[in-house]
């Protein structure tokens, strides 16, 4: 646990070190992290928002190439979405029969379903900004047999809007004097803010009881 907290508070230092010492491997780590967060329903806990923000900060420092990141991360997210969509599509009959699937938490699926019912296809774009929900949205889209072309267009649009928001925020703030001094607290703030919708849902359930 202490190691995990240390990594979170020094995420910029670790990734910056990898970028300096191993070059292209930093890009591979970023790509795989985003792909796994969006493409695998068993890894919704990965730090998507904070990682994209961090890459913007490192791009401002010259450790990473801004435009490579700008096109690479949405590509990873869209590929992940497509894998997740396909998994949902293949498991749609099991879901319809309410069969238990060991690697899927029922409460996560229920939250995403409610989100989907409320926002429709726009969920794919909106969910980019909501951890956990963004991981399960492509899966639910596949289960619901959303037309693939429609899903793909929403996925691409959502990926670029999401990345542009956090990447350029990190890039411009990364050039502000003394920003790095408070960087760890800002990352924690982003994580808390990102999970706020999930926290609200959980609290509502608790108080209803």
Structural class of the secondary structure composition?
mainly alpha
**Element-level helix/strand string:** HHHHHHHHHHH
Total number of helices: 11
What does the radius of gyration come to?
18 Å
* Number of DSSP-assigned strands: 0
Strand content: under 5%
Shape verdict: elongated
What is the CA–CA distance across the termini?
31 Å
The tally of domains stands at 1
Q: Which parts are unreliable, with pLDDT below 50 for 5 consecutive residues or more?
A: none
Oligomer: single chain
Q: Major sheet: size, sense and barrel closure?
A: none
Binned, the helix content reads over 70%
Give the averaged pLDDT, no decimals. 79
Describe this structure in words.
Helix content is 77%, strand content 0%. The chain starts with a helix and ends with a helix. It contains 11 helices and no strands. It has one domain. The chain is mainly α and 209 residues long. Helix 4 runs antiparallel to helix 11, helix 5 packs across helix 9 and helix 5 runs antiparallel to helix 10. The longest helix is centred in the C-terminal third of the chain and has 26 residues.
